[in-house]
Amino acid sequence: MNRYFFPILLFTISLTNIFSQTLYQDHKDSIVSLEHMFLLDSSSCSQPDLIRQLEELAERKFLDSYFPVKSGSGFIIDPDGYILTNRHVVLFKDLESARKRIGTDVAQSLIEEYGYNFSDTEKGSVLLDFQTMFARGDYRFTGILNGKEYDADVLEVSDEEGDDLALVQIKGEDPFSGIEFADRESINSSLIGETVYSFGYPLGLTITRIFKDRVVSMNKGNISAFRDDELGIQHNAAISQGNSGGPLVNEEGKVVGINTALLENGNSIFFSIGIDKAVSFLEERGYAEILKWNHRVLNAEKNTPVSNLKSNSLGELESSSDLLVLGEEGAYVYIDDRIAGRVPLYVNLTKPLTQVRVEGTSTEFSAAVRRLVSLSGTTELITAAAGKLIRLSIEDEEGAAVEVYGDGRFLGNTPLDIQLPPDSYNLTFRSEDLVYPDMTVDLSEKSFSEITLKGKTAYPVKILNYEKIQSQNHSGSLELILGKATTRQSEYFLFSSEGKTLQADFDDPVVLSEGSWTLSIQGVPEWEDQKVEFEVQGSTEVDLLKSGGGGSLTIRNFRNDMQIFIDGVKIDNPEETIPALPLGIRDIYIWSEGHLPYETDITVRMDNSAFVTFQPISSHGRKAGLWTAGGLLASGLGLTLGLIDSDPYALSHSSNYDEYVDQKERIANMSSGLIVSGVLMLIPALFEWSAQKKDRQKYERIQGGVQ
Length: 707
Hints:
elongated; alpha+beta; seven-stranded antiparallel beta sheet; single chain
C-alpha cells in the first residue's frame, strides 16, 4: 500500500492545483479594479519643469494624466456590466476637502523621497502646484478590467447604518463575464469549514505603483465562523486593503460573500458580507432582473461544450496516453460507451482512437480522442457547459418591429430568433403604435417555443409635469456622492384598465389602447395613494399637476381685506386655508390696500404643509404720502418763518446791536433750512409714488388673469 501512497498524494495535489487554476481562469475576467482619480492638468501648474523632473526621478507620468488616489475591488454580476462592491469603495463624500488633502499628501510623499534634488523654494513650488492641480483637476471614477478603463456609474449605495454594499455599472460594446451567486439559503453556519477563495486587487494602488501589470489575485482559505450580522462570514482566505468589494467564492465557483474588512493585528481574520444580504440589497432597490439573469447565463461561451485539446483535420482531439478529464464535478465519463467514473477522472488511453463522452446535470460533451505517441505527460480535457440553450422564436403577425423584453432584459426586435437557458420568462413587448399583452413562456429542454404576436392599435401617451413633481420629492432621502444621486427609488408608472396592467419607467415611451385608464405612480410617497383617471382617444396627454389631486395652502397673518391670486387666477372669498390646490410650484400674489404687495413661489404638497407668511409692510403709497406731507409741512414752516416780521422777536431777545443781528441771521437760516429739507423730502416721495404706480399696474395685470 505504501508504494501507492505518494503517487496518489501527488496526483491529488495535482488535481487540486488544476482545479484552482481553472477556478482562477473562470473568474479573473469578472474582477474589476475600481479607482478614483484626478486629472493633473499642466495648465494649472506654475513650474511644470519641476514636475517633469519629478517624473524622471519617479519614473512615472504626472502631468496631463489621471492620478489614481483611492481604489478597491468589485465583481461583475450581470452581462450588462453591473458590479457589486462595498459602500466604502465608492464613497467619496467631501470632495473639496479630499482634493486639498490628497494634493498635499502626494506632494509631501514625493518631496520626502526625491526632495534632495530640490531647493526649499522648489519644494514649496512643487507642493503648491500639486495642491492647485488636485483642486482644479477633473474627477473620474473608473472600472478597470483587463487593462481597459470604463467610466463607472454609482447606482446604489447602502445606508451608513446598513450593510456595506454598493452597486456600480460599466458599459461596453460586448457582454461582460460575471460570477453566479450561491443560493441565499445556504448562507448560514453550515458554511463553517468550507473551502473558499478570495479575489481582488490587494493593496490596490500600492501594488500598481510597484508593478506595471495590474493582475487579479486569488487566495485560498476556509470559513472559520459565521455571525448573523453585517460582517457575517469570518474566514482566512487572505485579503488586504484594496481587496474590499471583491468576491468570496466557494468550490462550486459561486459567490458566498463580499470581502469587506480585516482585523488589524489579527491572525488571518478576515470578514465578508454574506451574499444573502446582497440579494436583499438588490431586491429592495428594484433590481430583480439582475438576480434572475445572474442565475441564468452569465457568459454565452459557457453554454457550449469546450475543449482545450488540439484537433486534427478529421475533427479528432489529440492527446497523450494519459488523459485527465475535467469539468462539471460529478459528471459521468463514458469511454467507448462504457462508464469509467466521474469527473475529475484520470484515463489511460490504450487504443489509437477512443470515444470519450461526458454527461452531467449541465454538461453534454462527446468527442473522438486520438492518442499520439509523440505527446508526453498528462493531457487535460476540459469540458463544461452551463446548460442546454433552448430556441425561442418570436415574430409579429403583421411583420412589425417589436421590442422584446424577458424579465426586464432587452432580448431584441422581432423577428427574433434567440437561444436561452431553460427557465420561465415573463415576456413584455413595446412598439410605437401597437400594444401587446404580457405573456409567460416556459422554455424546456424538450421543446422550443414559436410565438406569433398580434397587436392592437394603440396611441402614445405623454405624461406632463412629472419633472416638477419629481423636484419636490426625496428631499433629504438621497445620499450625494460627488454630486451624483446614488439611491435610485423604485419609481415607475403603473397603468391599469379592466384588469390589464402596464408598467413603464418614467423615461419609457408609453402606448395604450383606447378606453378608460387609471395611472398610479409608484415610489413617490406623495403620489402612491393618488389615482389619475383619464381617457385614451387617440394621442393623449396627462397633466399630473392638473389631474393628480392636490394639497392646501395656509396663509399666516391672514386679513379679511386681502385679494389673493394663485398662478394669476383670483381666489374668490379666500380664507386662511385655501384647499384643493394643484400640486407643484405655485405663484402666490397677495394684495392688501395700504400695504406692500406680497409675491412668492411656494411648493404645494399632498401633506398640506405649504404655507406663506404675509408681512403687513406699509405700501409705497402710504410712505409717499408721509414723505410728501412732511416735505410740504417743512417747506411751509420755512416760508412762513421767512415771511413774518422777525424784528419784535430779535429785539426782545437782544441786549445790544450785535445780539440783534445774530438773532435775525439765526431766524433766516432756520427758514432756509426748513425749505431745503422740505424740498429734499419730496424726492423719496417721488420714488415711492413711482413704485406704487408699478405695483398698481402689476396688480391690475394679475387681476386681469394674465399668468
